[in-house]
Amino acid sequence: MAEDRFKEYFTEKIWEMIPAIYRHEDGLADKPYVLRRMIEIIAEQAANVRRSHDRLWEDQFIELCNEWAVPYIADLVGTRLVSALNNRARKVDVAKTIYYRRRKGTLAVLEELISDITGWDGHLVEGFRRLARTRHGFDQLPNYESGRFTGTLPGGIADLRSVHAAELSKGPFEEYYHTPDLRKPKGEKGHYGIQRLLFYLYRIRAFKVTRVTPFELNKTNGKVLYTFDPSGRDIPLYMPRNRPYNPQNSRNSSDWGKWRSCYEWELPAPMRCRLLGHAEYQIRDQEIIKLKNEIFSEQSQANELIQVADELNQVADIRYKTEISLRNDLNELPNKNVFLDEGNYNMILNMALVDKCGKQMLYPDAVCIEENGTVVNKDQITSSNLSSRNINVVKKKVLIDPENGRLMFTGNSQQTPLVTYHYGYSAEIGAGTYNRKELPQLETENNLGESVLHENSIKNFEDGGSLTLNSEIINQINDSRTYHITSTTAVREKMSVVAANRQRPYVLLENEWILEGKLDNSMLLLNGLWVGTSKPNVRIILRGDYKKVSLNHMTIDPGGLKDRQGNDKIPTVVLEIEAKMELLVIESSILGPIIIKDSGYVEQIIIKDSIIHSIDSKGEALTLNKAELHLERVTVIGNISAQNLWATDLLLFGIGHIFDTQSGCFRFSAAKEISDDKDKTSRLPRQYRSIWIEQMPALFTSIRFGDPGYMQLTENCPDTIVRGAENRSEMGAYNKLINPVKYDGLRAKVEEYMPFGLLPVYIFKS
Q1: pLDDT confidence of residue 459
Q2: Run of H or E including 163
Q3: 62 in a domain, yes or no?
Q4: In angstroms, what is the C-alpha Rg of the chain?
């Protein structure tokens, strides 16, 4: 919707042209303001004409034109457009057509297509470069292409003693070489051959969450173990996208040629433990000069320290693969006690850390630890596996386990630290640190969080920070820390509890959170909050009377396993409705079961682009016996019961029991026909282009909340689900991502610009 106010301008301008007598009589007629309404209709058309005139010039440029003009500009350059559902890709394709054709068949163009057409990240590998072969005299010197971790020469036999390199096998950065695999590409087969082009695709995005209160798991012998996730779950930490050139945001065509092949730490993927701990050191001459002039010169006995610093020339320009080897060489110097002093040694470690290694590139940009308001330095952190009880304690302050999302302080820590990290997820659904565009329209009246003084609203976090909410205004939480709500909240005429844009506060419930509407026209908005609990049978209860309740970008924790071994479980938070309500709207949210009690009544419930998850897949996910239910692009795990149902693009792994099947519809959707125990069958309204599903494990990458692939459809999912929605995309909550449409567009463009005679192989890494 345009915000140029042209309609209001032309309305008043035309209204002033009408004689005053007619304007006066229009307000006194039996049906007043009819003439005024006619003028508004005319003004709206005049505003459309004015906007069209203003955009005559912009519509000649692909960067500025409206969508209708894209096919006309595409005809001028003769490109074959991708699907109209992928509007961004169509514009990028037309804008870069000449650029693509001039570089057709090159590795740069083929890899750029991944980001340009789909918006995903990826890495392209030529299959023949992964084949073992005998080298000849026309090859480059092998040392320049040797493996980073194993030192394997191109085409040579890998050093199997390197666990680090073994983790990279079957991936885009592996250092092993293979014999030709002539089988048809499928799964992990048929990847290596002269004609193969391997496209490794990363569909999951990395979202940054800042200054989070970690969850304390245990504390023994002065060592405190935390999880990065505030709910106590084990989650993999993600590496953010860190490419030097970003085709998605570049608007300057002169930047298009700045492509280069990426490193492992530049792609949005789970962070490996050994990669975070990968540190190489090299002391350079200029750093020795800096050490003498800027650091040692400020200390006492400056002359002696400057002379001592000259001894570092004996180890200068030597590449050390590990910290131990550097420490051993420093131990051989005459004044080793000076260099091995804790303060000087840590200074040398930070100074000598090379640029292209995991620790330098990932800390503190991808993950960061704060203690007492100060960031822990690189020299004080290392990676470790913290999933077992037997932990080898090293002389570092903090141990980080990125694969399980844990950290441990090896010494005494008096205050709960704050952590900054990246988590992976497929879409902007649920509470998250993405841009929620509707928030800037809100006028905040009660600011909560670290950006303001709030002695009366929030206590210290160590004491269990408790929120005090105002029942009649907008309450905004300005950070991503953990809070508590311990009392009943009254809702007056209009009340909102929202998280600030790009923030994800975690609200930990100790008891039931009761939201009670005090007026017949009470309106409640919850936006951007993650609500969880550590105690069983804790609920969010809506009582009283409401005109409308809206839940946008909310996560009401569905519960589940804390770790992948199933050692402990997180309780489910149930949304229970005991109120009289006209309308309940849920959009872009993740929730556990929703129940209407006998005393409650809801006229209409609208759920869009959301996930409703019952941990017991045979249990009830939506118990809305008296409600009119509208579901659009929703994934439901569990059974549904409602009075009426209007469903579009619904993926229901459960039984639907609808009382009134004469009204409503079930279109472009999927559900279970018969339950696992064979005693229940689905009762649904009129069906149109819908299917029945049987097994859930074949559908989703993961059903554990917290995993990056949560509710993401697998590669082996049937096409009737993957392409069964109304827009020919996938059914369920991720329908708007149009992943199948993007994938088809990528394949079409790769075929257009790929060298003749080669075979593309698409491998989904996430």
Answers
A1: 37
A2: helix 163-166
A3: no
A4: 30
